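Below: protein 1.
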Amino acid sequence: MQSASFGSSFTFFAYSQALSAVPEGETLQVFELPEGFVLNVPITSLAVTIPKKDLKNNLAKGSKLNPRYFLFQNELRPDISISGWIEPAKKFTSTKKIFEGDKIQWSLNALPGPAEVEFKKIGGWDAVLYNMDLPGSQHSNVRAHWIQENTWIDIHLSALMDGKPAKKCRASLVRLLGQIRVENTDTTL
């Protein structure tokens, strides 16, 4: 994944314009608490809590042009990441349609197609689990969607398989997804 650089004034201008065009209350807020990171977009009534588990907020990488994007990476194993967005529910179509769009994008970028694809419900999450064989590495992935109270939470968990069995990596990511809490902010913050 290529990250945008703020080395050029054009990139900084484009980023600042994108943020300035965002209505008040639509920018992601991240609070670090002892039990984890709490993510909230003020105009929604939901908050997402991601357990710390050696994770650090790594917003410096990833999608700079979406003010509701988040990225956390494991400090001990930087190949493990949790990223995603918090969006209005009206932007959500279906897990299958979003995954089909992902496959088209991968194809356009000359990436191989996903393997061992499995669609399933995991708690309140509607998820697709898959593996990607990239040049020089294999990754296990879970892309999960939570729709509640006019809010869509889109989360992508990824881990380098690094010679581990695919089932073991997938099970670890599913366990991690099960530890991510979504709660109404009236009771969270």
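Below: protein 2.
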Amino acid sequence: MTSSSPVSEDSSGTSARRGAEKTSWAWATATFFGAGLMRPAPGTWGSLAAAAIWYFGLRAAHFTGGPAIAATVAGAALVTLIGIPAATRVERESGRTDPGFVVIDEVAGQWLALAVAPLDLRYGVAAFVLFRIFDIVKPWPARQLERLHGGMGIMLDDLAAGAYALIVVLLVRWWG
């Protein structure tokens, strides 16, 4: 959805239609509190922030096993529910389709990928790398989901990538 309105870039490199207001909660959420404004590769920075929060958050809460899985899945679900309207609004306000600085989708997908990983750096790194590969390659149906309108398309392709990574992590745990 490209806007024919004049577009200007701000100091962060994001663009907004001239005269359009930025909705603070949506921009903070969609950029995951600025992680999406980091360069290069904002999606990787968003995934890295999500993985770090997962690792240090679960360690601080002393969650392992079932509680860790439940907390991670709940976090991914919550981020998805908030991320869809935030990404939709930011996409509209920026005048760009699936802008790269929107990384809340990487957070949801990364947490889904980490859901069955034990709280171990090796598994965390494996889930991180697998998610990034699947997010970049976008195997079926991720590429098709990306074509959905607004925040749904932005979020669902990354959840598909996260599901693929989760399956690989689960297989590694099972046979590893």
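The chain is about 65% helix and 5% strand.
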